[in-house]
Amino acid sequence: VEAFGPGLFIKLLRIVLLMEAIRSHSVSAANAYRRCSRLYYHQYVQGWQAVRKTSWLDFGTSIDQLLEVLDLTNLEHAISQIPTHFSNPFDQIDVEVLLRLWWKTFRNNPLPPHSIDHRAGNQFGFRLPFNGNEVTGLMSMTVSGYIDKVTLIAGDVGFMEGKTTSQAINDRSDYWSKLPMDPQIACYAWALSKEMGRPVNWCWYQVIRRPSQAADRAFSKTHKVKDKEIPYELEEYRARVNELLIKDTRNALVARKKVFISEEMKQAFITEHAQNYLDVQRRKEDETRLLENGLPGELAWPRNHFGCSMFGGCEFFDVCTGKTTIEGSGDFKKRIK
Ligand code: SF4
User: Fold this and answer.
1) Could you tell me which residues come within 8 angstroms of residue 125 by beta carbon, excluding any fewer than 6 positions away?
2) If you measure from the C-alpha of residue 322 to the centroid of ligand 1, how many angstroms do you get, rounded to a whole number?
3) pLDDT per residue as tens digits for the range 231-262
4) Is the pLDDT of residue 8 over 50?
5) Looking at the DSSP assignment, which residues form a beta bridge with residue 200?
6) Which of 102, 250, 302, 323 is deepest in the core (most CB within 10 A)?
7) Which CA distances in Å does 204 have to 118, 144, 160, 223, 302?
């Protein structure tokens, strides 16, 4: 450092950090790119994020946070935190019902956290290098992500992945048969195996179904009176959903499954993730070429209309349909790098 001076050292350090950031490909970035390359461009190249997330994302994130509070403290404390996440009083009742149901179903069967460098509560963050395999050839990439919780049960290390869904989650539901295709859990098993230096093959998949999506209007906030739909009184609604829960909706709203992730699934994940990353790099080169020729760089990132309505809708929909612009709408802000 003395030979080059502190200024040069800081510059070199910045270059190293920038190279590291460029090589990094997170699970969420790969998911965005799979869904739509234009979405990836807005979020990860331009760095925009919605000031307000879609209600679907809000719901999932808030539920995850409340379940973590429940995990780390107790039921009453978790319930007391609901108003900080949900302002609508009907939503507050739904979420309280879900937390009580969750507690009742799993309190005697907890997933104890395994403490290896836990950050942010139960979450475990990782950044791991990948230098290629037989399919991709030599390459250099960093895989990053967050695991909801690393667990240790009867000496067996595994991890928990929390999800919220609109689909049915009964035992015989299709929902479970698709799990072996989930790149996220294959990624976490791959990453944890590397971190631990031994195979990690078990995921506890914990799922909450959004009550408003439950079948047969079970959580409808209105009812018919003389052919008119009118809202329930709050306490009337609370009594109604509690009664429903005692009857038969228990298994339809919360569920947990232990899923085996094979070595083959992990290899399939890392190969696809690396190819996803290489695709992104090619699009970045295309974008640079377009800009050099005076053309809009976004042309390198085609839209995928199949992605627009996924997960409750895309936050860039009004931008893509020309109703507004990112800068002009006030709905987006730059991510902090
Ligand atoms: S609205 Fe549709 S096309 Fe536009 S970025 Fe989102 S997913 Fe892609």
Assistant:
1) 119, 144, 145, 146, 147
2) 12
3) 889 898 888 888 877 765 555 788 899 989 99
4) yes
5) none
6) 102
7) 18, 20, 5, 38, 36
Lowest model confidence (mean pLDDT) among 32-36, 70-74, 114-118: 114-118
Q: pTM of this prediction?
A: 0.80
- Spatial separation of the C-alpha atoms in residues 215 and 212, rounded to whole Å: 8
Tell how far the Cα of 321 is from the centroid of ligand 1, in angstroms: 9
How far apart, in whole angstroms, are the C-alpha atoms of residue 107 and residue 101?
Answer: 10
pLDDT digits (tens, 9 = 90+) for 273-320: 999 999 999 999 999 999 999 999 999 999 999 999 887 789 999 999
Strand partners, 208: 164, 254
d(CA 294, CA 185): 42
Minimum CA distance residue for ligand 1 atom 2? 308
Q: Tell how strand 228-231 and strand 222-225 pair up.
A: antiparallel
Q: In the prediction, which pLDDT does 157 show?
A: 85
How crowded is residue 48: how many other Cβ atoms within 10 Å of its Cβ?
20
* Ligand 1 closest atom vs CA 314: 6
For residue 91, give the amino acid letter.
D
Q: Which residues line ligand 1 (CB under 6 A)?
A: 36, 38-39, 303-305, 307-308, 314, 316-317, 320
CB 252 within 8 A of CB 168: yes
Helix axes 183-196, 263-292, angle to 10 degrees: 110
Amino acid at 48: W
Token readout for 27 is 């699970």
